[in-house]
Amino acid sequence: MAKYLITFLPDPDFNGKLESSLRAKAESLSAKKRVQIMPYQVAVETDMDIDEVVKYLQPEADKVRTSVVRFDELRTTDLRSNEIIKFRGL
C-alpha cells in the first residue's frame, strides 16, 4: 500500500463539474483511507503504483493541472485535519 497526495489546480468554482468529478475519482481510490485536505487536495492510500493512479484519474486530470505525490507522513497546521488524518490511518 502507498499513500498519495493528489492536488489539482483550484478553480474559482470548487464545486464545478470537472473539479467535483476529479475529487470524486481521487476519493474513490480508497473507501476508508482517504481524506480531503482542501477542496482541491485529497490524500489516499491504495495498492496502485503512482503511474496507475495518474492513469486512473484520466481523462479529468488531463483537463486541469494535477499532481500526484507519494508520501510517508502527512501533517497540516489545522488540528481538525490532523485528527481526521490520524483517524483514517494516513
Q: Explain this structure to me?
A:
The protein is of the alpha+beta class and about 90 residues long. It has four helices and four strands. It has a single domain (about 1-90), classed as 2-Layer Sandwich (Alpha-Beta Plaits). The chain has helices at about 15-25, 50-55, 60-65, 80-90, and strands at about 1-10, 35-40, 40-45, 65-70. Strands 2-3-1-4 form a four-stranded antiparallel beta sheet, sandwiched between helices. The longest helix has 11 residues, at about 15-25. The mean pLDDT is about 90.
Give the topology, please:
Blueprint: E1 2-8, H1 17-27, E2 34-38, E3 41-46, H2 50-56, H3 60-63, E4 66-71, H4 79-88
Task: Determine the strand fraction and express it as a percent band.
Answer: 25-35%
Rounded radius of gyration (Å): 12 Å
- Mean pLDDT over the residues: 88
At the first level of CATH, the class is Alpha Beta
Structural class: alpha+beta
Outline: globular
The total number of structural domains is 1
Spatial order of the strands in the main sheet?
2-3-1-4
- Count all strands and give the number: 4
Second CATH tier, the architecture: 2-Layer Sandwich
- Helical fraction equals 25-40%
Order of helices and strands: EHEEHHEH
